[in-house]
Fold this sequence. Notes:
The chain is mainly α. The protein has helices at residues 2-18, 21-157, 160-174. Helix 1 packs across helix 2.
Amino acid sequence: MKNILLLTLGIFSISFASESVEGLMTWKILNTLILLALLAWIIKKWGVSFFENRRRSIASMVEEAQKAQEESRKALEEAQAKLEDAKMKFNESLKIAEETAKKEREVALKEAEEIASRIKAQAKEAIMVEIKRGENELRKYAVHKAIEISEKIVKEKINPEVEKEIILKTLKSIS
């Protein structure tokens, strides 16, 4: 088919060269019509299938884009749901942590109060022991001093006659 068209064009071209001006115009119009017919045939043969394939390709891309958009929307909704779930879990964890911290604080305060009361009791006991020890030491010291002073007074005031009299009184009281 191609060869026939080329041969026809060649013949027309040669004819144009040998014709006059009026015949030339007729041939030009005829050549233009043949050229347009050839273009229509080429477009119909290859162009229609090219544009149909292009249309299908574009339609396929649009469908894929719509699917991708739908998937993205679903993924976004899932991500938002997960975010909300994570926020709820975070708030719950925060509440639990606050409650736990409050309980731990209360337990620590109770333990501290118990320890403080034990320390106070131990301190009171230690103070009482020290007071008793001090009192005993003071008594010992007072007794010792009283004995020393009594001995000194007795030595100063007692002479052999008074001593005999005391011994006799003591012996009488014993018997």
